[in-house]
Write a structure and sequence with these properties.
Blueprint (H helix, E strand, L loop, with lengths): L1 H9 L4 H10 L1 H7 L3 H16 L7 H33 L2
Helix pairs in contact: 1-5, 2-3, 2-5, 3-4, 3-5
Length: 93
Amino acid sequence: MRARVLAERSQVRSPTLGGVLGFIFPSLGALYNGKWGMALLFLAMELAFDGLSFVSWGIPRLIYAIVGAHLGNKWAREANTKALDRAINQARP
């Protein structure tokens, strides 16, 4: 029971939602995970991609979306791991 409570408290971010947001717009995946600097960097890159119409929806944009999805998922899992570590440390006598 105690392990279940710790696991529930450690789920602060959804890796699936982070990945989906990161795939749609990598800046959204970064914002969801609280990575403000990366969100600004991704936003600048998104604006650059939109300005260069020949790469807006081609292979480079697809690669960029896949990288964004991976990072959004990874950052959410890292946030959950840190939250679990904090919950375990707080539960220790």
